[in-house]
Amino acid sequence: MAVCVAVIAKENYPLYIRSIPTENELKFHYMVHTSLDVVDEKISAMGKALVDQRELYLGLLYPTEDYKVYGYVTNSKVKFVMVVDSSNTALRDNEIRSMFRKLHNSYTDVMCNPFYNPGDRIQSRR
Amino acid sequence: MDAPEEPLPPVIYTMENKPIVTCAGDQNLFTSIYPTLSQQLPREPMEWRRSYGRAPKMIHLESNFVQFKEELLPKEGNKALLTFPFLHIYWTECCDTEVYKATVKDDLTKWQNVLKAYSSVDWLIVVVENDAKKKNKTNILPRASIVDKIRNDFCNKQSDRCVVLSDPLKDSSRTQESWNAFLTKLRTLLLMSFTKNLGKFEDDMRTLREKRTEPGWSFCEYFMVQEELAFVFEMLQQFEDALVQYDELDALFSQYVVNFGAGDGANWLTFFCQPVKSWNGLILRKPIDMEKRELIQRQEATLLDLRSYLFSRQCTLLLFLQRPWEVAQRALELLHSCVQELKLLEVSVPPGALDCWVFLSCLEVLQRIEGCCDRAQIDSNIAHTVGLWSYATEKLKSLGYLCGLVSEKGPNSEDLNRTVDLLAGLGAERPETANTAQSPYKKLKEALSSVEAFEKHYLDLSHATIEMFTSIGRIRSAKLVGKDLAEFYMRKKSPQKAEMYLQGALKNYLAEGWALPITHTRKQLAECQKRLGQIENYLQTSSLLASDQHLTTDEREYFCREILSFASQQTDSPGHRVALPMHSFAQLRDLRFTPANAVVHVGGVLSVEITVCSQMPVPIHVEQIAIHVHFSIEKNSYRKTAEWLTKHKTANGVVNFPAEASPFPTSQSSLPALELYEMFERSPSDNSLNTTGIICKNVHMLLRRQESSTSLEASSGLALEDGAHVLRCAGVTLQPGPNTIVFRTQAREPGTYTLRQLCASLGPVWFVLPHIYPLVQYDVYSQEPQLLVEPLADSLLAGIPQKVKFTVTTGHYTVKNGDSLQLSNVDAMLILCPEENRAVIYSNTREKVSDALLRVQSSDKVTSISLPAAPTYHLIEFELEVLSLPSAPAAGGESTLLGVTEPHGKHKDTQKTGHCMATTDHKVSIDCPWSIYSTVIALTFSVPFRTTHSLLSSGTRKYVQVCVQNLSELDFQLSDSRLVDTHDSTDLRLIPLNTESEQCIHSRQAVFFVWELKWTQEPPPSLHCRFSTGFSPASEEQLSVSLKPYTYEFQVENFFTLYNVRAEISPPPGTEHCRTGSLCSLDVSITRLSDLLEVDKDEALMESDEYFSTKLMYEVVDNSSNWAVCGKSSGVISMPVTAQATHRVHMEVMPLFAGYLPLPDVRLFKYLPHHSAQSSQLDADSWIENDSLSVDKHVDDQLDSGSVKSRGSVHSAASSEHKGLPMPRLRALPPGQAFNSSAGTQVLVIPSKDDHVLEVSVT
């Protein structure tokens, strides 16, 4: 289970950001925002290679003492960032990947909604 | 590499470690060979094939040659590999059998026995041959014999274990060859030994590892065993393999910790859970930290000790492998995971201890990396190290907070105690860094020693980190560190230093639209600005925060109160005011004009209703809300007219303003999309394309300077416009959410007013919306009075009363009682004034105000309409009936217009074929009270009827038919239709055959009237008639005025019948009926019905022998192809001009069909001599062409002899042709002059008997 999930627009503003627990929301906002540095770096550094391989998963962006921050970027340069508790050792790379894939599917569903305006904030029912 | 100063026997843990090879036998000999050997051995690489499918490697072998001792051989169970002798060599120079037998053999046997006792099979016997030595001896045996003996004695089946080295110290090719063979052998054997012994060792190690689930298993023991393998690989310079051993140990340990967390604890692990007492950080400056290693060996190491040692070894190997950046990356992972593991294992750690450990470790790693890389390398790999820098910064910060070094007052005693405890945990500085000035240990100690020192170190670190982050483009990370720094400065009571960092961070968050960080940073900034006394900035930030949805209501109210309390302060300088942007305070939602089209006449009242959405959490009483308006005199006067007013209606007068998407970044909301348009420029002369391009229409929006955030949003950009035109509304209380405010203004000067700024004032605080966008304008106009006259229906019909609407737009003119319109009368148009005619007065917005009786007075020349009194900018509407007197349109052809009622105005006859009505224009000039000039108005009336006439004959009796067509949409009642002869000849009578006196003529239909012409004397050659009929619209019962009848005049000429033509077809003699295919006779008789009349007097008339004759041409034509005319079908006859003169013509025709067939046509023409003018009507062109007739020539002579014979006046004439002479001309007889009495008769034709084919044509 991730502690924070964020969907970030191409222009780097958050489309959706949600963290559990909610009381420390601000910290996660800062963390996710800072992680965009590494996302940008990774996209520009291996951008070509990623596009060729169709690899959307960016891997571990950076670890902190308590959390691990993972990144994923869609072909339309929408970024997904997931923060995972470091002590949660059950989450290996494969689990993270599958979580991102699920997130990507959900995001695609949102984009398919004709009532959703691309670029608007995403509302979650839960 | 730090070389060990004191190598401790027997194991030397340095790079100098080499696999041990023992040497037995002749030590002197070996000593002499050793230099060459140790130099030659590593020269060439050897391929090492590995077990377990590992890739083979090329390896340069080196060896440490030691003298053979029995102690060197490992005892059973000894796992040490470093001290393991991989090969035993026995050296001998013996070439003498005696000597061999006496000493060498015994020595060898003893050596072999020792090896066997330790089951060591890796040995080699080297026999060195020396020519020089041989020469000295007398009893020289063949060279091979000693070797053979040795092989025989010792190398049982392993003859390759004995090699010969010839003349090793000489420089000859043989020596070289011998050396090469020997070295290859040596290397091969060494590698064989490695493979065998390492393989065995690995197997043992694996077995040991498999036992890890057993209770007594100890990780530390296993650690030592696997590390031994790592050492050997390192010794063989296989750093990669060595690293793998440590990584395996690392992973194994990590897994145990994870399992422990999952509740699967291993006994040995509990030892690592002992409380942390020492946190002196990583030590990376020695290849092997013996101190820690011993702790592990003694099973006394703590988790940090183990991790530190493990990492120091990995670090060493990675540095050997030239991978310093991996060290940095692994270090960060290690530090994080250590912190996690300590948590997981619930190890008790004094507060701050881990911070110290991490801080020291970070710096140690960084210094270690710096120690082995040059500046350029470091600079280009900041991305790898910056994580450690920021981690160290973070840790130092938390240490500072922990030890009270950040507070303003400095540390208290509790803080000091904690500091002392932390320093104690560091222990003494390690000897290897003792001389280094900037060692991590010294840095930490110094930083914790005083507030000033801490500040210095913390700032150094922070700045370095920010600089590094910035240099590699990690702006967000840099800003985050900057924010920490700002927090630090705030604590240190230096807000002026904090502000810069907060602004920078805020700008970054604003640019990318991160709402929560924006709010948080703003809150910090507000605090900072408050302390700095930046009142405007503080108020602005406060207003932003007060409207921030992400804050709690309490917080929002707090910031709102801050603004209010400032606003209520008595200011020293009354003129001083603080202008703040409006959008955070309240947002303009929509604006509604009344009247809705936002156009008002001078003096009119305009109200503007705005909806403002207050963003404040509490109701705010605003002293005044004002809209600043810019006035411009509109050049385009059209906008000011009432016409514009009525035509240009905006939807409902509501202007909506887009909501400001406040948290969204600039890239999304404020930058509009490109509006691109194609552009073509064509040359004016030939319309060819000159240039083409794309124009961006909103460049001014896109290319403007990006407005910097917060601080620059402040007053500088908010210039208050002080115009004379301001709409004000005082004393408004704005509730949270939408509020409606109404402004009223009376229009004064005509022009365009543009709403520019919205401003709400709250004491000295002014909230200003600098630009109202989209553009909102209202117009004030002044209009000249106008009169508009237009028909009510699509078109006006002549002859009947029609309604016309008069509209007076008063404009700026006030219509007083007694003002009237003077209409000049037109003869042909009457203005009818029904009683009870009312004029209606409308306001500017088309609302009915009142109505009044309209008084219309008519005199001969002028009709005067007195207008009701009406104020300015109103409309007066009334209707009048007008009647255009009908005029008789001219009939075409033979009629001329005589005495037609000519209208006063210009009479325009535009009768055309089709259904267009003839129209008549009437121009009326009207004098208006507001102008000295007359207004001329043209009214166009359409004549609703079109009339045609025709002459009908029956023998000599004549009839006149008149057809009246109604072209209009109305139905009319026709009455009293009359046809009179305008010449009024007494002998001519027109007897009407029309039964009904009243007739209805419907729209788009026609009515026919017929009169019979009777005369007593000789009829006149022409007849002038006038048709007249009264008409009135069928729908209307009673008309107030009597209507003039509709008249139509025409003329009929040559209406008297001169000739009667009769044709008759008779069957062949002897038959009763005509048959198809058989010839029948056609008899045509042309009879003159009158004597010489006036009409006969034309060129064709010939006078001879006191009687007149005229030439006629007849022609038999059957257009329907029923008959085949055989022989001559036409001819010219000379007709005597006397009554009853008859000319008969016989012809033969053949019926082609059976049935009742109509007779062929017989046509008569007047045959005119050639000399007359060219106005002839040639009807039978082809006939003339074919026969090229001259006057004299008779047709009969030319045509082939047919059976048809013309009788009567047939005279032969000269057959001379007159080519080029004018042709005789033909003129058709006017329809009234020839009467065909057999028209319409039919002849029965029956099919011929032998005709089997019956053709029936159905048409």
UniProtKB/TrEMBL annotation, chain A:
UniProt xrefs under Gene3D superfamilies: 3.30.450.70
PANTHER family: TRAFFICKING PROTEIN PARTICLE COMPLEX SUBUNIT 2
Keywords carried by this UniProt record: Cytoplasm, Endoplasmic reticulum, ER-Golgi transport, Golgi apparatus, Transport
One GO CC term on file: Golgi apparatus
Any one GO BP annotation for this protein: endoplasmic reticulum to Golgi vesicle-mediated transport
CDD domains: TRAPPC2L
Name of the gene this protein is made from: TRAPPC2L
Main location: cytoplasm
Family stated for the protein in its record: Belongs to the TRAPP small subunits family. Sedlin subfamily.
Protein name: Trafficking protein particle complex subunit 2-like protein
Family annotation (SUPFAM superfamilies): SNARE-like (SSF64356)
Automatic annotation (TrEMBL), chain B:
InterPro entries: Ig_TRAPPC10, TPC11, TRAPPC10/Trs130, TRAPPC10/Trs130_C, TRAPPC10/Trs130_N
Domain of life of the organism encoding this protein: Eukaryota
UniProt cross-references to PANTHER family, sorted A to Z: EPILEPSY HOLOPROSENCEPHALY CANDIDATE 1/TMEM1 (PTHR13251), TRAFFICKING PROTEIN PARTICLE COMPLEX SUBUNIT 10 (PTHR13251:SF3)
All copies of domain TRAPPC10/Trs130 C-terminal, residue ranges: 1023-1246
Keyword Transport found: yes
Pfam families: Foie-gras_1, Ig_TRAPPC10, TRAPPC10, TRAPPC10_1st
GO BP, sorted A to Z: early endosome to Golgi transport; intra-Golgi vesicle-mediated transport
Domain Trafficking protein particle complex subunit: 456-546
UniProt KW keywords: Golgi apparatus, Transport
Domain TRAPPC10 Ig-like residues, every copy: 792-884
Protein name as it appears in the record: Trafficking protein particle complex subunit 10
Stretches assigned to the TRAPPC10/Trs130 N-terminal domain: 16-328
Intracellular or extracellular location(s): Golgi apparatus
Gene responsible for this protein: TRAPPC10
Gene Ontology terms: cellular component: cytosol; TRAPPII protein complex
Residue segments, region Disordered: 1198-1223
